[in-house]
Amino acid sequence: MNNTISRRIKLGFGIGDLGGNLFFTIIGFYLLFFLTDLVHLSPALAGTVLMIGKIWDAITDPMTGYVSDRTRTRWGRRRPYMFVGSILAFFMMGLMFTKPAIHGQGALFVYLTLLYCLLNTAYTLVNIPYAALLPELTDDYNQRTVLTGYRMSFAVLGTFVGAGAVMPLINLFSDKQVGWSMMGYFMGAVMLITTLITIWAVKEPEHPEKQQGTGFFKTYIEALQDKIFLSALIPWTFFITGTSMVQGALVYYFAYIFKDEGLFQVALLFLLTFSLLCIPLWVKISEHIGKKRCYMIGMGIMAVGVMVFSLLGESLGPKLSLLVMAISGIGLSTHYVMPHAMLPDIVENDAINHDNLRQEGVFSSLWTFSSKLGQAVALALNGWILALFAYTPSEPSALSAIGIKLVCGPIPLVWYVVGIFILRSYPIDKNYYHEMMKKRV
Residue 379 and residue 95: Cα distance in Å, rounded? Predict the structure, then answer.
């Protein structure tokens, strides 16, 4: 495997996650708000829509990974799925943010659930094969972190676009419903274009016509019995859950506690700017202290940040709260880079232990499965907790304010702390990796 990565591959591969993270960000920050405040679906049903859609999304991940591992075409194993998925995602994204001409909570619930499942299926066809490309591009321990750094720099840019451009795009239209719909189609177009750039820029390595392996269920059972994999997978899932809860709750915090929905955009700018700026710094630090330690430190910073923001935000005031968001961004930066740099090492370890059987799609699908499961749990919990604390749009009460604060800090803190504790057992560092690679035939 070639360890020299050209600038074209770095940029071409990296830009693929701009569209992917844009999708993840819009769903995390805005979809629950759109369903409750624009479509007028009850918070409990809206949270359930998001949970069902993400569970369906998670179910399709392993199937896509398994099939793409065994696909052989003149265009490669991964890129045909990415091409089809990106086209479907464009149309589904627009429809998802178009208010349907449907009346009645039950009918709305069924329609939105089906539509959200279709949107997530399209995203899966892009995201799983895309994630599986990374281990195939280089087998160098540090170069994988560098390549991940490029990918996650674009991911943060995608988060910028997904978080910061939504409201300005909507506000271009006097009719807010039309604005939300046009925003959805615009973001779907960005997802389509960035995926097509990756398909054009990255050439997949050649693979033998047949790859021996076990059946579908046995393959995934074996992967889930890999203790090294689990020591990274479980913390990743917990961190996703906590972060997704914060993402989904922030817009409510600024709209109903600070009474300034527009400040939400400024806060995201602080959070994401510091995340983006710190990616190269964490890449360098990881060369000295390892990926695991960087990740643990970063999520510790994030945990402290969200607690301070949620519990002391009102007392600190908007300006100091923006500073807290910036500091939190320093920690969040590791969440963009380190887990995705750790996964290729785990894939390599599995290949060495299974006679060079390459299963990038299997591990990538489980990785993405767990992130979507975490997001599903987070968004459902947000909706249910808001309902439990009697949240109603445009009429915040003292009780609903407590619910908003809980999903911004104290509950995510639990996910962060447990995740950090489990991550301590992850064994692969630079020395472990080099010893492991000596066993490769």
Answer: 20
* Residue 209 lies inside a defined structural domain of this protein: no
- Is residue 165 within 8 A of residue 268, CB to CB? The reply is no
* pLDDT for residue 398: 83
Q: Is the dihedral of CA 401, 405, 408, 414 positive or negative?
A: negative
End-to-end CA distance of the chain: 13
Q: Please state the φ and ψ torsions of residue 394, each to the nearest 5 degrees.
A: 70, 0
What pLDDT, on the 0 to 100 scale, is given for residue 358? 65
Task: Identify whether 208 is part of a domain.
Answer: no
Average pLDDT value for residue range 176-197: 93
Please give the tally of structural domains in the chain: 1
Round to whole Å and give the CA distance between 237 and 243: 10
Phi, psi (degrees; rounded to nearest 5) at 228: -65, -45
Cβ atoms of 15 and 154 within 8 Å: the answer is yes
Measured in degrees and rounded to the nearest 5, phi and psi for residue 142 equal -80, -35
Query: How do residues 418-441 score in pLDDT, each as one tens digit?
Result: 999 999 999 988 888 888 877 765
The average pLDDT across 153-178 equals 85
pLDDT single digits (tens) 345-360: 888 887 787 666 666 7
Nearest one of 227, 242, 241 to 426, comparing CA atoms: 227
Residue 210 in domain = no
What is d(CA 372, CA 111) in angstroms, rounded to the nearest whole number?
Answer: 21
Decide: pTM greater than 0.90.
Answer: no
- CATH number of the domain within which 234 lies: 1.20.1250.20
User: Domain range spanning residue 272?
Assistant: 7-202+217-437
Two tokens, residue 251: 């817009």
Q: Report residue 179's pLDDT band, with 50, 70 and 90 as the boundaries.
A: very high
In a domain, 361, yes or no: yes
Which residue in the block uniquely carries the two structure tokens 């710094």? 281
